[in-house]
Amino acid sequence: MNGTDIHDLSDDADYAAASKQGSSSMTRNDSSKRSSSTDPEDAEVVYLKDNVTIHPTQYAAERISGRLKLIKQGSSLFMTWIPYKVQSSNARPSAGDKNLYTIKALPFSDIQSIRRHTPTIGWQYVIVVSSGLAFPPLYFYSGGVREFLATIKQHVLIVRSSEDANLFLVNNFQDPLQRTLSSLELPGSLASRIPSSSGSTSDNNLNNKHTPEDGHLSSTQRNNKQRQKSHDPARDISINVLEKFSLVTKFARETTSQLFRDNLVDGHGPNEKRRTNWASKDHQSQDMASNDVEVVPKRVPVPSDPIEFDKITLVWGQPRQHPLGLQEWSTFLDYEGRIVDPNALKKRIFYGGVEHNLRKEVWPFLLGYYSYDSTDAEREYAWSVKKSEYETIKNQWQSISPEQAKRFTKFRERKGLIEKDVVRTDRSLSFYDGDDNPNVRLMHDILLTYSFYNFDLGYCQGMSDLLSPILFIMKDESEAFWCFVSLLERLGPNFNRDQSGMHSQLFALSKLVELLDSPLHNYFKQNDCLNYFFCFRWLLIQFKREFEYEKTLRLWEVLWTHYPSEHLHLYVCIAILKRHRAKIMGEQMDFDTLLKFINELSGQIDLDPILRDAEALCVCAGENGAASIPPGTPPSLPIEDSSIYHNQDDEVL
Amino acid sequence: MPSRRRTLLKVIILGDSGVGKTSLMNQYVNKKFSNQYKATIGADFLTKEVEFEDRLFTLQIWDTAGQERFQSLGVAFYRGADCCVLVYDVNVQKSFDNLNNWREEFLIQASPSDPENFPFIVLGNKVDVDGGNSRVVSEKKARAWCAAKGDIPYFETSAKEGINVEEAFQVIAKNALKNGEEEEIYLPDTIDVGSTSQQRASGCDC
């Protein structure tokens, strides 16, 4: 465990991707050159580096490469990172996804720090923290980190942290005035940006449609886009050690921003003129515009919900139905046991769930373990094949002798961790209670076998929570194992060492709240809650700790239908937050209080109304909602690419 | 701005998975022990009112997930901490070996203003297990490590039996308070901040 390496996302797959990327970068350069031609005459590009890439997910296919530039205009230095254009229509990520991450004319006066990471394998990358939030790591596929930092050093005041040689602080209190301001709680410094409630909401809803990368925008659209960008939670996607600096420099930053804005106005005249300066020609003036929001005192009444549940004219989340029973189930099957209309089945289950005694039969379909068009006979055959396959994998660890185990630290540690966790998973349930409960033993064996089946992912806390209901329903060891495998095909990234699966969900959640409830989003932003860590447990184990056992089973089967969205669980989060938004904002909860509040909602959430709300929110969000979720965000299936083998080698248990 | 009296003391409990972090916290705050605590996911905290030198304080005790894979979350939870409690299981060598990692990780992520003097406390938990027969880390060894790390106070505890838990947390509260007060003196002082941060501002050597 090494402090500086802990956040490295590097792995062997990076190397594979690097060579791929290298060959394609040549062709990409041509198209990206156009963007530099739009740079204005009075702005000077002082640094330019191609193939600087972000990794929104762990899949190499979804990496987004772009061009990083440092641009000097007057006495100000700006950073831009513009992704290359999509080459084919079915390429992932899409143009819209790329827009999520674009860094447009970020002034260095807003940047607090830059941290350089040098992983042992893979490329150097930097994490830039600005306006209190961290941008996704920028990987320098073609090198140039040193030059990047050196260039910055030439133009702005940058100092190396005395405690961490890889950390470079920008705007580090060098100005005595700033220093003084920063340590005083001046009422003015505390002021925060407040949305113009109803107005900004509709704006957000409208403008979340993708802006074409080189399209022509009306000034209204541009304004909207700017405003949206000013609340861009993309800045918060990375969970990293730099966040703390934002606290230290918060007041200073606001002062600097203020000064910066004043200078800009002086230099370029009123708003109208500013919009035509170089940056906005490139549609890059968002960050400047973000300073152009009125400043009001912090204490404000709770802004109203932009989506008024009662007034909405949409078909509201339909009433829940009774669960699917055996008789009705048989109507979905043909004479050989195929499911004739999977979508109708999913819809039915979405609205009602499944009767308990039928779950054992239905869950393997929902989880994707059985295909919908398989026959009874095929499934019976598969059962025996899979059973022996399971035994083979299980035998791999069962045959490890004590002598061998002595020399197999990773195995011992994994086993130890699993042993510790299974005896504290759902032991109050009669299925798992009591000493020497055979089902606890089964859970142990399945988890350890899984950690051999997927050695890279291994075992991670939370997995036992995901397995418990599956074993409880399936009873059979091998069936439970394969259903668990199917579930982790989708949720495995939740447990990635680099936490990429969790990052992308937290990021998507933040985007969706911004879309569906901008006052709440702004509240979180002002209160340093944009990391959404208070939803971490919800997402990691699919609300397993939030509902009674039976309700969890219901929720899961509803989520697994992926009707009306693969990511309904994110809308469930928002539905719960919205139910409590007045309390959260009214009581001015800070991060700690909010976390405690959310943790204590456990067992207090009424599932059915939440599901109706979630459905309605999902419908409301529509395509804009879908576009807010980066590709590959769990539980989306990973993109098939057999050449990429995600290696989780270091310190995996 | 006049210095306000600090009444909230934030304590972070760290250590390997299964060493008894949740149990220690619950034993101290609720005087209860359960065999059925679940593995902590994310983080949670409990609060307890403590009286010290005729003043009332709220001790906010943070319990975090012990698996290394979740350490990157620390940055959100560790900030503003006044004391850090490092816990190991006296029956598990690895949990003791990892103390140093936990300590360093905490210092990186919480980034206290004075890392050299930030108060840590070490608890060797589960001394009750098997009447001490399964113990693998000796008290002597643990104390030696604590001494080497700047005289970190050390307690041998049993969350299950309630052994030394109260005593340990009294020291935790005391040291958290001491740290909090030092910060209090340091923070509102706007006049002479200059010297320290400017000395650190060595040139960028890149």
UniProtKB/TrEMBL annotation, chain A:
GO molecular function annotation: GTPase activator activity
Compositional bias ranges of the Basic and acidic residues kind: 1-10, 263-285
Role noted for this protein: Acts as a GTPase activating protein for RAB7A. Does not act on RAB4, RAB5 or RAB6.
Bias kind Polar residues: ranges: 20-38, 194-209
Name of the protein described by the UniProt record: TBC1 domain family member 15
Principal location: cytoplasm
PROSITE patterns, per database record: TBC_RABGAP
Domain Rab-GAP TBC residues, every copy: 353-563
InterPro entries in the record: Rab-GAP-TBC_dom, Rab-GAP_TBC_sf, SGSM1/2_RBD
The entry's keywords: Acetylation, Cytoplasm, GTPase activation, Phosphoprotein
Region: Disordered, residue numbers: 1-42, 192-235, 262-293, 629-653
Cellular location(s): Cytoplasm
Cellular component, GO, one term: cytoplasm
Domain of life: Eukaryota
Subunit structure: Interacts with non-phosphorylated form of RAB8A; phosphorylation of RAB8A at 'Thr-72' disrupts this interaction. Interacts with ARMC12.
TrEMBL record, chain B:
Transmembrane segments: none
InterPro entries to which the protein is assigned, alphabetical: P-loop_NTPase (IPR027417), Small_GTP-bd (IPR005225), Small_GTPase (IPR001806)
Main subcellular location of this protein, as a coarse class: membrane
Membrane topology: Lipid-anchor
Superkingdom of this protein's organism: Eukaryota
GO cellular component, one term: endomembrane system
Signal peptide extent: none
Keyword Membrane among UniProt keywords: yes
Coiled-coil residue windows: none
Molecular function (Gene Ontology), one example: GTP binding
UniProtKB keywords: GTP-binding, Hydrolase, Lipoprotein, Membrane, Methylation, Nucleotide-binding, Prenylation, Protein transport, Transport
Subcellular localization(s) per the UniProt record: Endomembrane system
BP terms from Gene Ontology: protein transport
PROSITE patterns for this protein: RAB (PS51419), RAS (PS51421), RHO (PS51420)
Listed NCBIfam families: small_GTP (TIGR00231)
Family: Belongs to the small GTPase superfamily. Rab family.
Name recorded for this polypeptide: Putative small GTPase superfamily, Ran GTPase, P-loop containing nucleoside triphosphate hydrolase
Organism: Helianthus annuus (Common sunflower)
